[in-house]
Amino acid sequence: MNSLFPKTLIPSTSLSSSTRLTLTPNSLRHFKLHLPRLMSSDSSHRLFQLKLDPLTGNSEWVVIEDNDDLPDCSKEPLLATTSYLDMLNDSFRNKAFRSGIERTVTKPRHVLDIGAGTGLLSMMAARAMGLNGTVTACESYLPMAKLMRKVLHRNSMGKAISLINKRSDELEVGVDIPSRADVLVSEILDSELLGEGLIPTLQHAHDKLLVENPLTVPFRAVTYGQLVESTYLWKLHDLSGIEAKVSDGIHLVPTGSDSIIHVKSRQYPMHCDAIREEIKPVQVQVIDDGNIHAVVSWWVLQLDREGTVFYSTAPRWINSPANIGYRDWCDHWKQCVWFFRGKGMSVSQGEEVLLEATHTETSVSYNLNVQVPKTDTRQHDHNIRDFQLLLSPERIAIYGDSKWRSSVLAAVRNALQGRVNPLCVVVDDSIFLTLLAANLSKTSHVLSLFPGLREKGAQYLENVVKANSFSMDRVEVREKRKPCLTLHDTHGKKVDMLIGEPYYYANEGMLPWQNLRFWKDRTLLDPILSEDALIMPCKGILKACAMSLPDLWSSRCCLGDVEGFAHSIVNTTLGACGELPAPKEGPFLPFSIWQCGEIKELSEIFTILEFDFSKPISSCHGTAQVVHAMDLFYGWIGLWIQIILLSYQLDQSIDIGSKGLSF
């Protein structure tokens, strides 16, 4: 099974067989991640954005400055890793909204555009009215509003469209807008349909901002679903069933406590076409024997009232009507997967299955009901308290991977050989390593930091201690978060083993080098390490491969004309690839390769940098030459970090990124 760890991709336009690649971070301490969580201040109308330092786990709110006088080199690329560019490259979506607007806005009216983005829908509405009506565009995110002003100016639409930098629920008729609007155009949709606050936003608009019975584009949306059997999806959520096939003596999910580790009950956006050959549909009126593992859902937009213009996010195995058709590959709207807990629900031909779907203002959930045979006598360990640890599907799949477990187990067993009463510090959030260290050595003392899991990690260990044959007397979880451990925390004893996967609960989905938090933590703990302390992993190797990803390229390529409106001005800001002027470069993007559409390797795998975890953190410099690369018309550079567990066992290594590039 291919790992779901994200691999970083860099768009490349001119790579040849002799091109040298250089990556020189001045200091690994300066990496920061910008998360799309926003907070506004009503008193000053300032916008704040949450920033996370992946090397410390610390986060802070920072002010987004409204300063156009700053040079471009000093501005941080707040929009380069968003989905705006992908949406604007979705020609099927653009044509559908254009047609829907032109069929709906047939005479001068007052049009309200909520979540205006670059202003594409606003400009479509203004053009449909011959620039004679009124268009009010609402865009709350300051960097996007500033970019929209540039797009409007480039298209001579600045006077035709009134842009307001506020949330729609902050608008007031008579204050911000002259009157209630006759038409609403909006695209506040996500892969689940409701996740961006569609319902409360539209409800407020109908109550406060729109006339009675307004026209809307889109007109309505319908969600569809299919019950499926899929071994691949099963491995993403049923750790208990997978672990039953692994005979390594470690029980992350003890018998009878299947729900102690599971994924959060929610829909997970996913490109399901990537596992099309592995999917087996299960009808609600069951037509074949099988196991229901998940619901795959998608939605269809009806853009106009008459029902002639549609947009669908359906996977390609669904036979969509001719008037809906199939869109090109895009990443901004995917299908969604809802996992059913456990091994799946076994069904027989002719059996009726009741699928219940409910929704809140922001999410859709599913429940599957079928008559349970009276002979079901599953045994449960009633000594295990009602505790649940929620992990991501990717983490569940990794913990169920027998090859991964075997490599880690062998490395820890070898590391413990010859050590008497060792103090072993698990520096990350690895429950697996904690269980391993305690299980494999009956004399070890294990101190787990669990910086992300914290008390949840401690509660989990208390629930599985019996099944894993060790005593909590030898396992300690640091309860309070401190900048660094001291000898006081280790009861005066220096650390003999410092280990990690590395896995940090809050760092999933980040760029590969942002997982170097382990190196940072190892450096901070250097004063309390014994002279012969073993560091595992001992090394990280940043590897790369030139790749052709035409689908991803098409979704990230430079814009020119979008439905008659010039958009080249947004290319640099949105991180487009392909035609940016020097020295502009595309952004680093974390992606799971198997979710990137068509894939082709164009070079051998090569090494760029090596990180020596046995020594404190330091600046790194590396140069690599790509050998025998093919044409890179759709070229990207895929990067991932290979983790070497022990220096004398190079065969025991883990790739943070992928276990190979052949998909």
TrEMBL record:
<dbReference type="InterPro" id="IPR029063">
    <property type="entry name" value="SAM-dependent_MTases_sf"/>
</dbReference>
<dbReference type="GO" id="GO:0016274">
    <property type="term" value="F:protein-arginine N-methyltransferase activity"/>
</dbReference>
<dbReference type="Pfam" id="PF22528">
    <property type="entry name" value="PRMT_C"/>
</dbReference>
<feature type="domain" description="Protein arginine N-methyltransferase">
    <location>
        <begin position="282"/>
        <end position="359"/>
    </location>
</feature>
<keyword id="KW-0949">S-adenosyl-L-methionine</keyword>
<keyword id="KW-0489">Methyltransferase</keyword>
<dbReference type="InterPro" id="IPR025799">
    <property type="entry name" value="Arg_MeTrfase"/>
</dbReference>
<keyword id="KW-0808">Transferase</keyword>
<protein>
    <recommendedName>
        <fullName>Protein arginine N-methyltransferase domain-containing protein</fullName>
    </recommendedName>
</protein>
<keyword id="KW-0677">Repeat</keyword>
<dbReference type="GO" id="GO:0042054">
    <property type="term" value="F:histone methyltransferase activity"/>
</dbReference>
<dbReference type="GO" id="GO:0032259">
    <property type="term" value="P:methylation"/>
</dbReference>
<dbReference type="InterPro" id="IPR055135">
    <property type="entry name" value="PRMT_dom"/>
</dbReference>
